[in-house]
Amino acid sequence: MRANIKKNGLKRVVVVGCGLGGLRLARSLRNSGYQVVIVDKNNYNQFPPLIYQVASAGLEPSNISFPIRRIFQGYKHFYFRMAEVKAIDAGEKAIATSVGPIHYDYLVLAMGGTTNFFGNKNAEQHAFPMKTVVDGMRLRNHILETLERAETEEDMARRQKYMNVVIVGGGPSGVEIAGALAEMKRNIVPRDYPDLADKMHIYLINASDRLLKSMDEKSSSTAEAELKNMGVHVRNGWRVTDYKDNVVYIDNGKTLESSTVVWVSGIKANVVEGVPEGSVGHAGRLLCDRFNRVKGMTDVFAIGDQSLVEGDPDWKLGHPQLAQVALQQAANVASNIVKSDNGQEMKPFVYKNLGTMATIGRRRAVAEIGSARLGGTLAWLLWLVVHLRSILGVKNKFFVLLNWMWNYFNYMQSLRLILK
Asked: Which of 245, 265, 285 is the last residue before a domain boundary?
């Protein structure tokens, strides 16, 4: 198959993965005199922070996705290949893909991460991850299907199994999906399924001693109090050891029956063959120097969830796997590629923490910006503005805002469709 493109005398930067980081890097190289080839297994960019709203029937998948080819229309010397990357051939300076080899002068790995089940094969097979738009759609369909089954189930024990939702992971994703499902329980289930109005139970299982471990203790306690007020059963200090036959097993000996387990308990980097064994660190992250160059490789960079930058005294265990890290690393790597070719000194990556936030529900959120600790309506409005600005496409921004406004007033959106 033909994957290569004529270089026309230009140096080529191949970017693997068009997520938040890969997209930022490619855009940063516009008008820089490079040929840019973007490789992704999907033909769209997705906005991960709002996947939980797809899963809870708050948004359509198309609202947070945007065609990659549409993004780069009008860009000179930009090419896209929808393909899966199989391996890196460092000697040939090429990547092997499902559509053929693609050679590079500079290679940037921005493949992100996938759900970390920590070796639990049963959970990996039966629980629902929430990393992609496809994951969100699968979870949405499943939740709606279980409600339909519960509506017609005469066996009370089996009905309760359908009505119990277990969320594993007390980070931002776990808190946000728990809040979204709690609002569904409060505002949608009584209307659509009146016989099930008081049957739904949402459990948030957190192995740590508090929610939102990466945030301040005040933010953690605010989030937990809000979730409990919304009817979520928060269980701190519980670690899931297994999930089989619709039973969740906890390390303290307790069990929970549930046909819906959402696993958001951590991530691990996506792997690619051809990287030296000594260059792979914790959870599959690629060990990089301060310039995001992969250890033991030439002209190969890694950014975002896939990278683990060594040598930063402020982040000895590596930078957090957050969107802002990927975006800042992408901009810095793009700048350093240009500087390197111009004989200028490259700039080491320094992470600037712009703040952390998590939404819990309508007028419920927590946000940390510098020394400020915000909660309630102000944090919620700030969360809305930040995320709305980050969505690609004017049309998508409009429909997301319209959905949010409509949901705010009446929760009668018509998105609860089971689409196979």
From this structure: 265
